[in-house]
Amino acid sequence: MSNEADNTPIQNAIAAACSTDLPEAIKIMATNNDVDTDTLEEELRQQVKFMEMVWVDAKAGGQLYKTMYSGVTYEQIISAGRPGTHAEVLAVNEVIKALKEAGKFHSAEDLKKISVMAKEGDLNLARCVHCFYLLQGVKTVGFD
Ligand SMILES: [Zn+2]
Q: pTM of the entire structure?
C-alpha cells in the first residue's frame, strides 16, 4: 500500500522515546504521513526543511542527494518517504518538548539525552536515511 501523492510506503510503525532527564518514562507515537512538519520543534524542523528540499529535488530527477549525502542511493531517498514524518521523529519530538518544559533542552547537543526505539510488528526498525541524519546524537535502542 502506498500514498499516491508522494509514493511513501505507509508504515504501521510505532516508536518510543525517553530521556533519563525526565521523570515520566516514555512517549509513543505512530507514524503519520500527514504530519505537519512545520509543527516539529525547531532543532528538527530546520533539518527537515533541508531534507525535504533534497527529497523533492530527487523525485524531480535532481542529483542534489548525491552531493549532500554520501553513499545514499536514489531508492533509499525515495523509499524513506517525506522527511520528518516517521514514528521515531515524532516520538523524539515529544521528548524534546518535555525536556524544554523541564528546562533541560537547550540545543541540538541535548539530543544526546534521548533514546528511541522504533518497531513494526515484532521487528526493530533500522533508521531510514532521513531519520539517520535527522536524529544524529539520539541513541537508538535495539539497533546500532
Ligand atoms: Zn525514518
A: 0.85
